[in-house]
Amino acid sequence: MTQTSNRFFDEMARMMNDAAGAAQGMRAEFDTMMRSQAERFMRTMDVPQREEFEAVKAMAEKAREENETLKRRIEALEAALHGSQGQARTPPQENPGAAPGLAV
After folding, report:
1. More confident: 1 or 4
2. Is residue 101 part of a domain?
């Protein structure tokens, strides 16, 4: 079988290539339009940006860790207080830097 150059098939191939290029351009434009619409919608919903969310998340984790540390410290102080109540009662010494009424 011999191959012949057929102008009809050449024109059809060129038209298909042009149509594929146009479809890709339309898709890129559609993606851009949808992205801008989504961004505008998110701004109207007052949704925080990723950086703001991560900053608040880090602050919450730090606060949680500090609360756990303080909780363990309070439990240790309460255990020491209950242990010393069974022994001879001595008046607590005030720490000049501490809040009034807190014994050390």
Report:
1. 4
2. no
